[in-house]
């Protein structure tokens, strides 16, 4: 896995050793064509037996539900009785449904702010966690702790935090003007901003991954840069960021994937309505309502398939763009 | 160290255990045990009182009621019961919000009970159900078949704080339900007098806003003759002028009592998901609110000293007929349940005179059983709401009830915020609900739906 700086491992006896410059000598190995020996077959069977619980788990809990969901997306199905085939009907309805457009807009608004902001917050936390001070273990614990608060509890904390009369947020606003007249949760845009703010308290997980990336950057590179006269900002821009880019890519993709599925916080702070004015009606909430509130599992499945396709497209787009900014040249120190 | 043999044996044992778990018994096979999903954990004691009384009867003496208080995921989230029915672990009888009956019946989640009535009562369904309020029976009727028996009901009215009104110099006779029915103009005037603002213009006390509490679009729709569905044309009528009038009412009030200010007021004094004791009424900040008899219990519990009274919903002009709407619970039979005589006896007892006479005074709601109403076996403080019943009705029994409710609620939010005009709101509502209802071609609500109910006097 060169992405994390560890050289790719070559199966023993399968291919010639790598040359010093990383290129292989001799004819390329005939992958997958070599006949397995009796021992290989026995090892393979044994290996499969060992991982069979996971294989069964994936088949039962992932492959089958995904496949069935795709099938249901072409049907009208309430959860009871047999599904009725409607072809592309659910997809046609989805593209004409004003609430699909509204909830997609809300979700994209959230993703476009929460994801970049989340990366910045996580990176800043990781840099703070990476300081060479004696109390660093304490700092790491303190910075990571908010990520352990369940979204459910966090939502209730935020409802109090944003109370127009008594909330800390509004008390701060009072310094500049009239905080008592501002109810962030009562405004269609404000409620999204509030949920974006909430998401930042969970940045500790991404920060841990950044921290692992930071620890992987060789100290010698920084030393060389310092000798050449690079200041902290220049070191960050020219060394830290480029060498952290594979981790950044990972956090970006998982962040986008998570943002497309935002649900819990919005469900709690709006009492499941998505109001005011459907401002917090995110795509997953609308999907949930259709599936379990309106008993339209076929339509909800179509929405899920569309979400999957959008998520896939975004991931591919990010991968394509990543060729320009991701640097895989770092090696483990 | 784990050997290969140990690992494989353990894996095989785990798989076998999981398989056996899937084949776990689906409850007692004896028909003397009735599995019952009750009203809710907080009211489990009330359920038990009815069950004890049932067990003391001859019919119920040999029957065990296996109660399970399964918490609801949300107003219309049926995933638990659907999963239970599909998994063969559903209860034999389930206490369910009547509002969901037609939708659940339409998806095949419930068993019709007509056959039970004909088999064990020997009378027609119409004759048997004449023991209950007609609108409550209508709400349980889908495609001409009955899917449950009603338990409690309620109605909507205005709750007001006498001290706040008196303090604002309001003549309290205006609010006396035996003397007067408020008009919308009078309500607005009173609201103006009660409302006070601080130096920054924020509401300190608020009189009334029609979107608070039970001020749902349906609430005002019944007073403005806005119907959601027409049996004659078998179509949704959410874009009618009457529905536009409902949303114009919201827009009109939001102009004088702006949404942002009112919202900041409510967020302060009764934030979302606040405990039931934390309301703007209890903190004596709100003068009037739309509510029902279900408030009686919390008033007694959290603000026993506050002079909170009830009156009718406001009408357009003096002399107009009063109106309201009523919800409530029912006992229904999930698909696949054992339709036994014992099950029927329990349902009949719980929803009949004996059961309702036990449970209604404890709940503070109203009975649906006419004999129980006649015997006044309910909380005396709910008397005004009983008087509302003749002109009350249920929300329209439609298989798209949840979608309609959700759509109307969202439109209300858009109109009071000002992002939609009433005309735009009704057009969107029609577009949202119409096509879904069109899938039930020619659907007919019960012919008696919407008619005034006959309530016997004591």
Automatic annotation (TrEMBL), chain A:
Main location per the UniProt record: membrane
SUPFAM superfamilies registered for this protein in UniProt: MalF N-terminal region-like, MetI-like
Coiled-coil annotated spans: none
PROSITE patterns reported for this sequence: ABC_TM1
Keyword Aminoacyl-tRNA synthetase: no
Region (Disordered): 1-37
Domain called ABC transmembrane type-1: residue spans: 104-318
Subcellular location: Cell membrane
Superkingdom of this protein's organism: Bacteria
Membrane topology: Multi-pass membrane protein
Ranges annotated as spanning the membrane: 51-71, 108-129, 141-162, 193-214, 243-263, 297-320
Keywords: Cell membrane, Membrane, Transmembrane, Transmembrane helix, Transport
Family to which this protein belongs: Belongs to the binding-protein-dependent transport system permease family.
Protein name stated in the entry: Sugar ABC transporter permease
